Amino acid sequence: MGQDRDSTDGVGRKVTFLGRGLGLRSQSRLTLLVCPLCSQRNGDRMAAKGTCAWCAYEPAERDEEPCGPDH
Ligand SMILES: [Zn+2]
Q: Which residues fall within 8 angstroms of residue 23, CB to CB, at 6 or more apart?
């Protein structure tokens, strides 16, 4: 709630998980691009599920942090 001033671009925001890994957070979906646990790049199919294809890790939503623009 209270996100009405956020105009989402449909792709999602880059997020990290406690400073590690890389994901894309959209309104209701998490795409896990790089696993924060094993640092492997995820496959497309598993990435869309938000789960690591390598170690089956599924990041907790509360671990998500916005990815800074300085990368
Ligand atoms: Zn992993």
A: 14, 15, 16, 17, 30, 31, 32, 33, 34, 50, 59, 64
Tokens 């907790």 -> residue = 60
User: What is the CA(10)–ligand 1 centre distance, in A?
Assistant: 26
Cα–Cα distance for residue pair 47/56, rounded to 1 Å: 11
Tens digits of per-residue pLDDT, 13-68? 999 999 999 999 998 899 999 999 999 999 999 999 999 999 999 999 999 999 87
User: What is the reported pLDDT for 14?
Assistant: 94
Tell me, in angstroms, the distance from the centre of ligand 1 to residue 51's CA: 8
Tokens of 69: 């623009």
In whole angstroms, what is the distance from residue 41 CA to residue 69 CA?
20
